[in-house]
Amino acid sequence: MLKVKEDEIRKTSIFEKFISRPDSSAVVAVLALIIIFSFTSDNFSNMTNIFNVSRNASLYIFVALSQAIVLIIGDMNISLGSIGGLSVITCGLCMQNFGMPGIPAAFIAILIGCLAGFVNSMIITRFKLNAFVATLAMSFVYTGLVFGISKGQPYSRIAQGFTAIGRGSFLKMPILFWMMLAVLLFMYLFFKYMLTGRRILATGGNKEAARLSAIKTEKIIILCHVLSGLFAALAGVLWVSRMGSAPPGTGQDWMLISFAVAIIGGTALTGGVFTSLGMLCSALMIAIIKNGLVMLEVNQYFEQTFLGLIILLAVAVESIRQKYVFRIKL
User: Fold this and answer.
1) What is the pLDDT of residue 42?
2) For 38-85, how does the pLDDT look when each residue is reduced to its tens digit (9 = 90+)?
3) Strand partners, 155
4) Residues 183/280, Cβ–Cβ less than 8 Å
5) pLDDT tens, position by position, 156-174
6) End-to-end CA distance of the chain
7) DSSP for 280-292?
8) How far apart are CA 141 and CA 84, in angstroms?
9) What angle is formed at CA 23 by the lines to CA 19 and CA 29, rounded to 5 degrees?
10) What's the rounded mean pLDDT across residues 296-307?
11) Whole-angstrom Cα distance, residue 313 to residue 240?
12) What per-residue string of b and e applies to 284-315 under the rule 16 or more CB within 10 Å gives b?
């Protein structure tokens, strides 16, 4: 009898430990979706479909990391889609007009993204502007540059070898998928074990307390916005590699994806929280939903409606989870 009670206590504690994790909702959601779509669609679990879902999810991760890295410090980046578009046309311009190989062109595009993030950070820290207002204003500046430079025309002469990254595979899975896993593993180690990562989390948790602890919070803000620009540019470069062209309209729909993946993945809007597992699960969830809607022949024009409702549901579930966690900790 005593042993049974001990087992019950052990099971309860494991459940409570799991539910206390900020990524628990995303983990449960993605497992539920995999089960549902596996039974409702015969083609969902074939390798071709798994390949496409994982590749799309990988691209979503890079887009979402651009938002998550600033959400961690309590900021946001409204210009990330425009920065991504700027990196796309920079990459295309370098290859098509200047005849540059893929890797140097990609490197320049990523530098442009970092520069754009640095400009954002300077406006925020020097002029003490709200991150939302500053990045919203800069999004128009970057979008203007995108269409001004490209004249609204896509760059289509992309180096053939460059597309191997976005379209190639390794061990029957997309190269993008392995790149994404490597980046998420690095982010996990960065925030868990590295001093700079811990300082970023501390700054997001409480800026004033971090400042009083001798953390140079202004430099942390600058670093995070530069990293945000880097991830947005990297997403743009990988998008070019995936599509085999550099259209100026790239990035215009990234805002919803960035917030959806980051927030559903457990990145708190109030800052101070990041989870690689949550990001992975939420990106897979969005990719599976989009893929499942196509397989179930749902009207694609309602896709944004479904994604918006999913975000609302995720926020509601997260609110319930937080209240439950608060109760069990009392």
Assistant:
1) 78
2) 888 778 888 999 999 999 999 999 999 999 999 999 999 999 999 999
3) 246
4) no
5) 999 888 999 999 999 999 9
6) 27
7) HHHHHHHHHHHHH
8) 13
9) 90
10) 75
11) 33
12) bbbbbbbbbbeeeeeeeeeeeeebeebbeebe
Q: Is residue 93 within 8 Å of 106, Cβ to Cβ?
A: no
Q: Check whether 304 has a pLDDT greater than 80.
A: no
Averaged pLDDT of the chain:
89
The alpha carbon torsion through 153, 177, 191, 71 (nearest 10 deg) reads 40
Phi-psi bin for 297: left (phi > 0), alpha (psi -120 to 50), beta?
left
Helix (H) or strand (E) holding 170: strand 169-170
State the Cα–Cα distance between residues 56 and 50, nearest whole angstrom: 10
Distance between CA atoms of residues 109 and 318, nearest Å: 37
- pLDDT at 1 (0 to 100): 47
pLDDT of residue 2: 46
The whole-angstrom separation of Cα 268 and Cα 273 is 6
Task: Write down the pLDDT at residue 7.
Answer: 53
Task: Report the C-alpha gap between 18 and 31 in whole angstroms.
Answer: 15
Q: Which string of b and e fits 72-91 if b means at least 16 CB within 10 Å? A: bbbbbbbbbbbbbbbbbbbb
Contacts of 23 (CB under 8 A, 6+ apart): 265, 266, 275, 277, 278, 281
